[in-house]
């Protein structure tokens, strides 16, 4: 009986160690297959990402593509804004697009029907940059003029054309070409400002003559001296007659 019991104990011990060995082997085998499966999945995912990148192209865009994208956004805005502008153009204004396919460049002619500059003809050059409407259009007065808010070289003092303004009156993406044209038109009436001049000499002349006489004849005569008679051609500043 003792011999049988000892053999039974040995058998149980053998089975116990065999079970432990089998369990360890199974764990190792499972770990091996899991690692192989994980490697296969990662390889497949990497291959897919590589194929997708090949279809989409490089993740980082070049400066040229960024510029093209900005121009596309600008041109889409201009199609709508030009239509709005032409439908709401002041009666004293005319616009001309030298190239109908380039809406980002056009000329504006203002012919005031009241005030100091009544009867004059003033031409402006308007160029819309690629970054529009995050930045304002570039505007230059081509007509030689004696004006407190316009220099003789064509620089213009108009708040909505300022890219940065501390008083909140500068350019904002909510503004449009219509606002620009109406603002330029108002430089000859409501927005004519002698108190905050860009052309200081013109403003001082107005104040000096105003102190002598209450009527506006002296200022009007000087304002109309070069009104509509000549225009600046290009950056050279040479004067040529208006067509």
Give structural notes.
The protein folds into two domains: 1-60; 71-235, Ubiquitin Conjugating Enzyme, CATH 3.10.110. The longest helix has 55 residues, at 2-56. The chain is built from five helices and six strands; from the N terminus they run H-H-E-E-E-E-H-H-H-E-E. The chain has helices at residues 2-56, 63-87, 177-186, 200-212, 217-223; strands at residues 93-96, 105-110, 122-127, 138-141, 231-233, 238-240.
How would you concisely characterize the structure shown here?
The chain is α+β, with helices and mostly antiparallel strands and 243 residues long. Helices cover 45% and strands 11% of the residues. It folds into two domains: 1-60; 71-235, Roll (Ubiquitin Conjugating Enzyme).
Question: What is the fold's blueprint, element by element?
Answer:
Elements: H1 2-56, H2 63-87, E1 93-96, E2 105-110, E3 122-127, E4 138-141, H3 177-186, H4 200-212, H5 217-223, E5 231-233, E6 238-240
Antiparallel strand pairs: 1-2, 2-3, 3-4, 5-6
Active site: 157 (glycyl thioester intermediate)
GO biological process, one term: protein neddylation
Domain UBC core: 73-227
Question: What is the C-level CATH assignment of the largest domain?
Answer: Alpha Beta
Percent helix range: 40-55%
The gyration radius over C-alpha positions equals 39 Å
How many distinct helices? Answer: 5
CATH homologous superfamily assignment of the largest domain: Ubiquitin Conjugating Enzyme
Largest sheet: 4 strands, antiparallel
Secondary structure class reads: alpha+beta
Strand order of the largest sheet: 1-2-3-4
For the secondary structure, the number of strands is 6
Active site: 157 (glycyl thioester intermediate)
Organism: Anser cygnoides (Swan goose)
Protein name: E2 NEDD8-conjugating enzyme
Family: Belongs to the ubiquitin-conjugating enzyme family.
